[in-house]
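= Tokenised fold =
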Amino acid sequence: MRQKPVFARHLAMDLGTANTLIHLRGQGIVINEPTVVAWETASGRMVAVGREAKGYLGRTPAGIEATRPLKDGVIEDFSRTRMMIRAFFAKVCRPVPFFRPQAVISVPTGITQVEKRAIVQAAVEAGVGKIHLIEEPMAAAIGAGLEIEDARGRLVVDIGGGTTEVAMISRSAIVCGETVRVAGDEMNEAIIAYLQRAHGFAIGENTAEECKMEAGSAWPVAGLPEAVTLSGKDLAANVPAEKTIAADELRQALEEPVSAVVEAVREVIDQAPLQMVDHVRQDGIVLAGGGALLAGLDHRIAKQVGIRCQRTAEPLLTVVQGSAIVLDDLRRYAKVCIA
């Protein structure tokens, strides 16, 4: 059902590589859609955004292009990103004369000034007045209910579509951290590459995502299917085909990106002050983001790092929920905003 626009309200936004979420004050999360835009190649006119635009990926009709304007956590296409942000805002927010709402938008750690300006400009063009930017791991920590303002160290691992951000947080600041361009999208690509290499079998990105969520894992987990049957193409015969892949093989296919995530966690622990590491050993590691939904990933991190690791209650929503909390108390959280 299409979201009916309401009169302008203050909003929080998680602008992710794979998904974009918008929380309207007083109404909750009203947008949770793929970060995809489709447009006419001749005129440049946008024809679809979000879930509808994702349907065009890999099968666009003549005269239409579709793309993800963000890649690996950074803006790859500034004009399409602005177009997409305006379209998402228009879906849920109707401008009101003489009233320009505020917005808190979460962004990757280390975002450039050019990228900041592009996001702010898009929001202003969509009718937003004051824009506040917050780094994603900080928003995840707040959304997870962590007390970020005291001196205690809190370790957050936010796994999105394009990047994994690991951050040690204390006194409303990121003490040290690592950002690696390995996350949900790279896990999908690893499955695609493995099937081509090991079986001469090709599948698309959506199929890779579906089988990852159905039977993929980072650690042996009870209750997962033992195998999954995929529709794709036999590359030798160049014909459509089906192939059944064991869950153990999927885990093998995911080994490289999963190992990269674990190594990033280790590196931040090595960089952090010893006292804060002690705090984390007592309190555990917090795992958020859509990539955290990979079965067994929390167990894999805990086993290899030697520290308890726990997913947030709703990993995919944690960042936007944290941004919404900041929106509701900007005075308290002024220090965590980077713009």
